[in-house]
Design brief:
The structure is a homotetramer.
Chain A (H helix, E strand, L loop, with lengths): L2 H24 L6 H8 L3 H7 L3 H22 L5 H19 L1 H12 L12 H18 L9 H21 L6 H17 L10
Helix pairs in contact in A: 1-2, 1-4, 5-9, 6-8, 7-8, 8-9
Chain B binds a DNA duplex through helix 1 and helix 3.
Chain lengths: 205, 205, 205, 205
DNA sequence: GATGAATGAGGATTCATTCAT
DNA sequence: CATGAATGAATCCTCATTCAT
């Protein structure tokens, strides 16, 4: 990699990090290109060298999170279904907590603002989550952890809506309670209740 | 009521109805005072005779819904807890469906935009929903339908987060599925699972 | 006077008093017809029964002051010139103090805002003051208190500009010092210095 | 300086000059961003590249005047007190005449509109004038031109109120007389009368 | 790659005044 | 005389985006 390319990458990184900090601190509404570039110490035009639209940088900021969970789950291919779902739940809410309320709000924004909300790859975060969970459940059927006739679509939507409900309510409460506290308290309890009927004999608990 | 007052009320109504239609059709982001008044056939200033701020009319539009559910529930004071919750669920999701996706998005907006989202009374819709449900559960304890040691706060949050999760996902899906369909399919199933442990012997099902 | 006329006068008075209070408290910029009528307990339209323009009521408020000084001076036709000028000065600055800084600001406004500033009769307050003082000096010449060749116009402008300078600076200082304190301290000192050359022998001091 | 910076400066200058002309011609009340930019041949947004608020350009327009007088006076540190005051008076009223009645009105505006009137540095023009004159008199005491016990504050206020009175009356008369004519006719006469008692023997005239 | 000057669409709000009742 | 609903002109400011250098 040439020196020039390296510097370019550094500038790009600086923009993303700066934007992430501003986003965490002040929220999306207060985020503007001027502030990002000023804080990063570059000219306004430089932003558009790396990002076609302002929203793109928000996508970029959130993208790391996906790889994380995706990677973790792909590394535990042989694990138990309930374990996997637990890891998924746990990572999901940890990410929510880690990224903070303002970035969490961005994830929800696509619910109310389909136009301006950033896409996280080429699909919305929600679609992505649906697909990821559907895959997990389908693989569980292949592995005979889940009964063949388990209503995968329904189960997926129940669980995802549970998670998004928690996210939404967390934002509604303005971050008063701890997301991960509640995960344990009620999400997992329901998780078992929801799945129990569809687990194969051997795996029922 | 004098003729003049009647006309004033009619103008006010016209503004609300016009705004509601625009909101349902184009969403909140496209809603502007100019369009509302132009469509209603009045001058721009007339809007400000009836609403101090643009957001106020959105509050007004949604307010009817509250009274509705509140009234219905208060009329069935002696009903069964599960029945009441069913009515609550049903009305909630019916309202979601009736008002349409763009107004539903407004309800979620307060999660991500606490500043600019309109308050629907003096509290947010979410706070209001929490209070209403807490009251229902507390009364069920008084009526001995629910065990004394039922974790009211936790149960309230489980149910509300369920409902808000459904709303959020509905918006995420851009209104693809029917909210009330899903209510039956999964909300009520979980409702029983969630409540069962805390119902008094006589009422357990 | 019929009962109806009496009531009308009462309404008019109520409007003026209310407006005066609002003007003294909040200043001219905050003065609006809505507030005046609301505070007075009448409808907005009523205002326009009595005043063609919003500014007219401000004229009305200030008009009392003129009659006051005018009357006082006309009652002391035979008095000494210096005495008269003293009374004039004194009343002028007392009025300034009495009416308060916000009304004083209105008197100055006509300097910067010839269009919107209220006229106090059909001429501006400043023109009125010039005329009144010119009359005093001319009468003093008739009475031989002042030399025939005294430059009346110049003297008038010197004195008036002195007074208006004090008013302007008082407003500039946001009312920090006491107008009447300063009157004694420097206006009168100058008054004598200015006039001395033109007083007739008999009256020189 | 790069070509780009030069052009930017030119644009800025164009805006200021255009605004100054509009201000001189039509007064402050008629001054709006739309007109300034349209006349200057740039886009509305360009205005806000150079000035954060509309008022800021008025400050800018008047600022030159300050530096001017300040510089002139600081260059004549060893001059006679009366000479200095004469220069001060002269420049003051020349500036009044030069800038024209509408800009003069802006200087007076801060008397009646403390909130919206533009500040000319970080203090009002009046405060600035007070400070400048106080400094001149204090230095005269150091130089023994003025008696040690001269009432500096009082003298400052007398002179400044004289100047502001002239400004105010000039605006009141709608620019009928020539400011500098009057300066000679009465300000200087009074200036000597006011100062004479406090000049040291050697300097008394 | 980097710059930063220039763009211009876009929208809320105020309030004096009128006039039909 | 009193009412108060209706009017609509008038204007500031933001900010994502472009493009010539």
């Amino acid at each position: 990699m040439s020196k020039r390319q390296e510097n370019a990458l550094k500038t790009r990184r600086k923009l993303i990090d700066t934007a992430e900090n501003l986003l965490k601190t002040n929220g999306f509404n207060a985020l503007c290109v001027e502030d990002i570039t000023k804080s990063a110490g570059v000219a306004k035009g430089t932003f558009y060298v790396y990002f076609k639209h302002k929203e793109d940088i928000v996508s970029e900021i959130c993208r790391g999170y996906f790889k994380q969970i995706e990677n973790k789950l792909s590394e535990m291919t042989d694990a138990d279904l309930i374990e996997k779902l637990s890891v998924y739940f746990d990572n999901f809410m940890r990410a929510v907590e880690l990224y903070g309320i303002n970035i969490c709000r961005e994830w929800i924004r696509s619910a109310i603002d389909p136009k301006t909300a950033p896409d996280y790859t080429d699909i919305s975060k929600w679609q992505y989550d649906i697909i990821m969970l559907t895959n997990i459940l389908n693989k569980a059927i292949e592995n005979k952890e889940l009964k063949k006739d388990a209503p995968v679509e329904l189960l997926t939507h129940i669980i995802i809506s549970q998670l998004y409900g928690m996210m939404t309510c967390w934002c509604m409460s303005d971050g008063v309670f701890e997301p991960t506290d509640w995960t344990e308290k009620f999400s997992k309890i329901q998780l078992k209740a929801i799945m129990n009927n569809y687990l194969t004999q051997r795996k029922q608990r």
